[in-house]
């Protein structure tokens, strides 16, 4: 079937956009300090926390990359299995959630500085910018796909408009306004996906017809991928989630430990519902639209569903993409201001100035993110790069703070440097020739360096380790 735009859908996108704007402006009036802007005044209850965790994690990375692109490009089983890394990551975070909450830091770089020193903090801020700006870039692309389907404009033009929308919404209220809009978006997405699933399968002619229309490899367990290739897609997700600054900030923003744990459990339950449905929808889209950009798989289904259902679904997808873009833009700007600018350029900065400078920086980072959309050929490729830069450069050293108190200052810093350099080196020189994502090399290298350097420096650094415990 040929993909056609559906002009009626734009009204659902606009309607939900107006709702998000009103909600965002309302909550932005509660922002009076930088803590309000970055950590929502540490006021999030379990329901809002669950919603903002889900909306932050299941954004364009899932509905245009991740499960979506995996199901369309390789088949249903590789996509369904891609939920497992997220569940492992969330379970680990659940175990250490109280420790994250009581650290109470604005950024993971601040956590790393306590353990490893200021150079670790600076390196972390640099890695966060590299990774999060990349993540924001494919949120722009995802919204561009939606605007293309609903208006008929080119995805490129849609991406420009999408960038402007996300940048504006990120500026107005920070986490104080992002978290409630996240929660509303999460519930809309769950409803939209559940309603759309049976109707999409019916529009494709039923499950047997879907199976008949896709390549044979798309029904195999591995989708024609080798074990290393599969791990190359799964490990970046796991290691980003285990150390994701956005997630840590939301944990720190909850109003108490009980809210943190209940919100995390709700996040797990919602994820088990949402991500398999995305996989099945994208697989269904492969049967109906065999020649579209993989990133458009689920979005394209809105053109064959009843207008009301397609409208709810496209509004839901818009919501997830926008809120994820807001979150990662905000998080990247926070790192620049708190971990670099306030420490080394303007040391006498006051709270009001932090708030102003963070808001001013968001558009600049947004422009850089937009420029990245021109470099990577697919959403999935930029997603894997962004996840791996962060997952290899930060996560092993960060998890060691909570799970491995014997780790030394030298080990943490060495691990971060190794993870970053190994990722960039592989991405630029070996990814294209091998077809294997850099995570297969960089994450093991970062972990090995962390352990080996700890063994050789533990006695020398034992005083620091004891103090940290």
Describe the structure.
It is a single chain. This protein is mainly alpha-helical and 469 residues long. The protein has a single domain, classed as Sodium/glucose cotransporter (Up-down Bundle), CATH 1.20.1730. It contains 23 helices and no strands. Helix 3 packs across helix 16, helix 10 crosses helix 14 and helix 18 packs parallel to helix 22. It is globular and about 65 Å long. Keywords: Membrane, Transmembrane, Transmembrane helix, Transport. It is a multi-pass membrane protein. This is Sodium/pantothenate symporter.
CATH topology: Sodium/glucose cotransporter
Count of strand segments: 0
* Sequence of secondary-structure elements: HHHHHHHHHHHHHHHHHHHHHHH
**Spans where pLDDT lies below 50 across 5 or more residues:** 464-469
**What is the general shape?**
globular
Percent in helix = over 70%
Number of domains: 1
Mean model confidence by pLDDT:
84
Beta content comes to under 5%
How many helical stretches?
23
Structural class: mainly alpha
Radius of gyration, CA atoms, in whole angstroms: 21 Å
User: CATH superfamily, please?
Assistant: Sodium/glucose cotransporter
CATH class membership: Mainly Alpha
Q: Give the biggest beta sheet.
A: none
What is the CA-CA span between the terminal residues? 61 Å
CATH architecture, by name, is Up-down Bundle
């Amino acid at each position: 079937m040929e993909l056609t735009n559906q002009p009626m859908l734009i009204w659902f996108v606009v309607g939900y956009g107006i709702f998000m704007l009103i909600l965002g402006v309302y909550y932005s009036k509660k922002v009076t300090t930088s803590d309000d802007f970055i950590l929502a005044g540490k006021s999030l209850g379990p329901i809002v926390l669950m919603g903002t965790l889900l909306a932050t994690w299941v954004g364009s990375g899932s509905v245009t990359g991740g499960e979506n692109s995996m199901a369309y490009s390789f088949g249903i089983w590789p996509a369904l299995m891609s939920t497992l890394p997220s569940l492992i990551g969330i379970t680990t975070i659940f175990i250490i959630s109280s420790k994250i909450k009581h650290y109470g830091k604005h950024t993971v770089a601040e956590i790393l500085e306590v353990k490893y020193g200021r150079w670790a903090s600076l390196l972390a801020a640099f890695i966060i910018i590299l990774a999060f700006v990349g993540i924001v870039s494919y949120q722009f692309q995802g919204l561009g796909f939606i605007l293309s389907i609903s208006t008929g404009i080119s995805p490129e033009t849609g991406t420009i408009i999408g960038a402007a929308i996300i940048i504006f919404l990120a500026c107005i209220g920070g986490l104080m306004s992002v978290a409630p809009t996240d929660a509303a978006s999460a519930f809309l997405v769950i409803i939209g996906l559940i309603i759309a699933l049976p109707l999409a399968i019916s529009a494709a002619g039923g499950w047997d017809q879907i199976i008949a229309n896709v390549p044979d490899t798309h029904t195999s367990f591995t989708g024609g991928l080798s074990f290393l290739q599969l791990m190359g897609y799964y490990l970046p997700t796991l290691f980003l989630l285990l150390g994701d600054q956005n997630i840590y900030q939301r944990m720190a923003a909850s109003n108490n430990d009980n809210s943190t744990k209940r919100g995390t459990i709700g996040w797990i339950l919602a994820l088990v519902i949402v991500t398999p449905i995305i996989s099945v929808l994208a697989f269904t889209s492969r049967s109906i639209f065999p020649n579209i950009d993989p990133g458009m798989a689920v979005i394209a289904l809105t053109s064959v569903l009843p207008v009301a259902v397609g409208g709810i679904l496209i509004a839901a997808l818009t919501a997830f993409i926008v809120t994820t873009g807001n979150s990662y833009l905000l998080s990247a700007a926070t790192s620049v201001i708190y971990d670099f600018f306030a420490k080394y350029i303007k040391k006498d900065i006051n709270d009001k100035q932090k708030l102003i400078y963070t808001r001013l920086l968001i558009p600049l980072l947004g422009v850089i993110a937009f420029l990245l959309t021109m470099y990577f050929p697919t959403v999935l490729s930029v997603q894997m790069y962004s996840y791996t830069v962060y997952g290899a450069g930060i996560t092993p050293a960060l998890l060691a703070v909570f799970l491995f108190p014997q780790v030394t200052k030298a080990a943490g810093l060495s691990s971060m440097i190794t993870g970053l350099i190994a990722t960039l080196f592989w991405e630029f020189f070996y990814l294209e020739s091998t077809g294997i994502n850099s995570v297969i090399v960089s994450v093991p290298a970062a972990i090995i360096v962390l352990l080996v350097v700890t063994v050789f420096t533990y006695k020398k650094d034992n005083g620091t380790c004891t103090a940290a415990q």
